[in-house]
């Protein structure tokens, strides 16, 4: 008797146990930079824009929101550390990250999440 694909390879419907984490930077209509972390940048930006439920209060009423940078990070702990570090930076330092498309040794992958 032939085995099903799921029996051979395991349950393919399980969520990814260790999904990649991303640090993202969004600019609002006031020119402020919001920094956050997520496992799904497209979904998170849609939430911030009010297209899906669950956006950050800090961004309510500040549309349009422009995605400025996305960086893939090894895990949630590293993403949280980087988020904290970026939030402590000055505006010129944040602008430097956006312009250079680099944060430490991470390269910006924003284009993978643009519409």
Automatic annotation (TrEMBL):
InterPro entries: GIY-YIG_endonuc, GIY-YIG_endonuc_sf, UPF0213_domain. Keywords: Endonuclease, Hydrolase, Nuclease. CDD domains: GIY-YIG_UPF0213 (cd10456). Residues 19-96 form the GIY-YIG domain. Pfam families: GIY-YIG (PF01541). GO terms for molecular function: endonuclease activity. Belongs to the UPF0213 family. This is Endonuclease. It comes from Alteromonas marina.
